[in-house]
């Protein structure tokens, strides 16, 4: 199965709408930006210098706060119920982002990231290619 078909299969399992597509698009581009700006690493999630592996970059891009505790692309609300709801949405979005990435790669993220021949350029290019693929209208994903 090619990576596009695998992604379609994953997305078909979820109530997928335009907002979620935009979130995933933003997550993958934000993760790529992070890796370009701070660096990429292998065999660990994050270094003291701020470099991250692909999985950690996607995970952090999925959260509501970036490294400086400023709101990221999610809109923040006020009050405990809003924050609990937001945490649930962020968790679901992060899980979906990881699952879609695994489908795109065709294997688990960490072994793919840690492969000796892997380069930072390839990781960034892969994240951007997935984001750009997700820019396709969602109706295309639902047709098999």
Description:
It is a single chain. This protein is an all-alpha fold. The protein has one domain. Helix content is about 65%, strand content about 0%. The chain contains seven helices and no strands. Helix 1 packs antiparallel against helix 4, helix 2 crosses helix 3 and helix 3 packs antiparallel against helix 4. It is globular and about 40 Å long. The protein starts with a helix and ends with a helix. About 15% of the residues have low confidence.
Task: Sum this structure up briefly.
The protein has one domain.
Relevant terms:
single chain; 144 residues; mainly alpha
The run of helices and strands is: HHHHHHH
Number of helices: 7
Domain module tally: 1
Q: Shape, please?
A: globular
Structural category: mainly alpha
Radius of gyration using CA atoms only:
15 Å
What are the low-pLDDT stretches, counting only 5+ consecutive residues below 50?
A: 68-91
Biggest β-sheet description:
none
Hey, roughly how much beta strand do the residues contain? under 5%
Quaternary class: single chain
Mean pLDDT, as a whole number? 78
Number of strands: 0
What's the N-to-C terminus distance? 13 Å
Detail the topology: elements first, then pairings.
Layout: H1 3-11, H2 18-38, H3 54-62, H4 80-105, H5 109-114, H6 120-134, H7 138-142
